[in-house]
Design brief:
CATH superfamily of the domain at 14-280: ANL, N-terminal domain
Shape: globular
CATH topology of the domain at 14-280: Rossmann fold
CATH class of the domain at 14-280: Alpha Beta
Length: 658
């Protein structure tokens, strides 16, 4: 059955949705978690009982309305329950990225003034203890996993299970107060605070209300006809707005089950076991899966490889049309069905997507070739465009109107307009309340009429009404000859190739485009093994002449593709180098969501950029790196710079305004 319609006054918070789900779906699974190789399941009734006990325990500890509760760790039912329990007490959950280093954690904990920290395990507890002197307002650390915690000083520390047990025992004393606080939750009260990735500076705390989350969840669920029978795998960072909407907002609105994998290492296996019907992944995920698939096919027998290539070529030609319900000839349909039995079905099954009814990708632009590859297999992969400040959804692609080069039409209830400079603006019920303790940034981002500046440049296609995003507005520029410069578009084309993990393109205000490349160690290492090429490290592999030849071939293929695009033909890459290290969030070069921090890269690698443009054949450099244990070090390297062929363009490239 569909999630029942109800007036906002009846369901004004996540705890209110929880109470409704217990009434409607009491015996249906709400959460599953794989631990020690066994899937454990909790019904909605069991979930509500666990959350209520935790909330009562929080009250016994003194959690007050308006307090901030930091939640740190991987996707675990207990951590999701902690967020809902905090909400029941009138407090505000603040999830943090589990891979954040102590310095990043210190800033967020200090900025939000958290009194309580809920940590998954010993690793997260240790990070909080490391910065304890900088966040003296943290009064209590609650941990989920007891392993390794026995000898710690528990003066200001306790196990989450013990807090639940205390809550059950103290039920009579605090039940009335808990009911009062839960009933008092309003539609415009804060639901969660999520921190932005901070690509250009310190992360900002985005305050999202119950109205933002529930209205957005309701509209997006109706858009894709989601019901209580969906299955999702919650594996993305809990601090990311997408996970909160999918694993909390939509899950509680619809009443479907949230499945938590055993670990990041077993995620693919767990995905295969669960077989989700509703799936989200960033572009990088789909790129990685293609890399793994193509590596395996290179190792396959000649007949199997030939069959794969033959049917994938056919799928690329007719698969997207079949997905969109467009006319396809009888013979082509028959060939596709044979391919589905022999190739497409097994690939979908191995990817854990046999049951997927709706899949989305977002976070950054996905390469057209990657997008079309998955749709050609019969997977209903679509794009959405969103932001933390929008509670995710700004635009979505309706079924039958899915294309690689657009991000769809405005989501239900969302208004979108293009400013005079080409910047995209929106307003919607999901529009954030404010940036916490940052009235200046709030005013510069959201105007008095509720319009929010996205920072992205784009335009609407007149024929279809679909939005096309070009790039970040601050990154879009002009080449020296006046042609358009849009680095992300080019970078995504490069990252389609399994051998390329990351790319950073330069060219604004310059006479030509140049690029940094990160190779994919898995893909290139596999190639080296098959071709008996020896290497001792990432740095050594990245500097091999054969690898540079391979990357040069990929770059030249991208140049040929760009030459056919009148708007972006000027972005062809003339020179590149392969970096001697992977760009890393711990080194400040990427955000925790793997977005490139261009300004930091330009500052850190200024000598390499200068060498690209002064026609040097090679450049020597020393780079500071951060090791897994937090220690700093440095690596030295001499990098070869390669020139690449470009394709002459007879017509002058179109400018962005055209």
């Amino acid at each position: 059955m569909d999630a029942p319609a109800t007036s906002p006054g009846e369901l004004t918070s996540i705890p209110a949705l929880l109470a409704r789900n217990v009434q409607l779906f009491a015996a249906r699974p709400a959460y599953r978690e794989k631990e020690y190789g066994i899937w454990q399941s909790w019904t909605w009734a069991e979930t509500e009982a666990g959350i209520r006990a935790l909330a009562l325990g929080f009250l016994e500890l003194g959690l007050a309305p308006g307090d901030h509760v930091a939640v740190i760790g991987a996707n675990r039912p207990a951590l999701y329950w902690s967020m809902v329990a905090a909400q029941m007490c009138g407090a505000i959950p603040v999830p943090l990225y589990q891979d954040a280093v102590a310095e990043e954690m210190a800033y967020v904990l200090d900025h939000c003034g958290a009194r309580f920290v809920v940590a998954e395990d010993q690793e997260q507890v240790d990070k909080v203890l490391e910065i304890a002197d900088r966040v003296p307002h943290v009064e209590m650390i609650l941990y989920h996993d007891r392993r390794g915690m026995r000898k710690y000083d528990h003066t200001r520390m306790n196990a989450l299970a013990d807090v639940q047990a205390t809550g059950r025992a103290a039920g009579e004393r605090f039940e009335k107060e808990l009911r009062r606080r839960t009933d008092a939750l309003g539609y415009d009260d804060t639901c969660v605070m999520l921190y932005t990735s901070g690509t250009t500076g310190r992360p900002k705390g985005v305050v999202l209300s119950n109205r933002n989350i529930i209205e957005t969840s309701k509209a997006s669920a109706e858009f894709d006809r989601l019901t209580e029978r969906e299955e999702i795998l919650a594996y993305l960072p809990m601090a990311w707005v997408g996970d909160f909407i999918f694993s909390m907002g939509q899950a509680y609105w619809c009443g479907f089950c949230t499945n938590c994998p055993e670990s990041a290492e077993t995620m693919y296996e767990n995905l295969h076991e669960i077989g989700p019907t509703y799936f989200f992944a960033p572009p990088r995920y789909f790129e990685q899966r293609i890399t793994i698939l193509l590596i395996r096919m290179e190792d396959a027998g000649r007949l199997k490889k030939a069959m794969f290539d033959h049917f994938m070529a056919h799928a690329k030609r007719v698969g997207p049309d079949l997905m969109d319900g467009k006319p396809v000839g009888l013979w082509d349909r028959l060939r596709y069905r044979i391919g589905d039995i022999l190739v497409y079905g097994p690939v979908r099954n191995r990817a854990g997507m046999s049951k997927v009814r709706v899949a989305y990708t977002a976070g950054e632009a996905i390469g057209p070739e990657i997008f079309e590859f998955w749709r050609s297999l019969g997977i209903n992969l679509k794009q959405l465009y969103g932001q933390t400040e929008a509670s995710v959804f700004i635009t979505q692609q309706p079924d039958g109107e899915v294309r690689a080069d657009t991000v769809g039409v405005p989501s239900p209830g969302v208004e979108v307009k293009i400013g005079e400079t080409g910047e995209v603006f929106y307003r919607s019920p999901g529009t954030f309340v404010e940036y916490y303790k940052n009235a200046e940034s709030t005013a510069s981002t959201k105007d008095s009429e509720g319009w929010v500046a996205t920072g992205d440049a784009g335009f609407f296609e007149e024929a279809t009404g679909h939005l096309r995003i070009i790039d970040r507005a601050k990154d879009v520029g002009k080449m020296a000859d006046g042609s358009l410069f849009a680095p992300k578009y080019v970078e995504n084309k490069l990252k389609f190739y399994p051998n390329i993990l990351e790319a950073v393109v330069f060219g604004a205000g310059r006479e030509m485009c140049c690029a940094f490349i990160n190779i994919d160690l898995t893909a290139v290492g596999n190639w080296a093994e098959r071709n008996n090429v020896s290497y001792g490290s990432y740095q050594e592999l990245a500097g091999l002449a054969q690898v540079l030849d391979m990357i040069a071939g990929h770059v030249e293929e991208v140049n040929a593709s760009l030459a056919g695009d009148a708007m972006l033909a000027g972005c062809q890459i003339h020179r590149f180098l392969v970096l001697h290290k992977e760009l890393d969030a711990d080194d400040g070069e990427l955000t925790r969501t793997r977005k490139v921090r261009r300004r930091i890269i330009e500052e850190k690698y200024g000598d390499l950029i200068a060498a690209l443009y002064d026609r040097s054949a090679e450049v020597s450099t020393v780079t500071e790196v951060t090791y897994e244990d937090g220690r700093k070090g440095s690596i030295s390297a001499t990098l070869e710079i390669r020139d690449t062929r470009t394709v002459p363009v007879t017509a002058k490239p179109l400018e962005a305004a055209e």
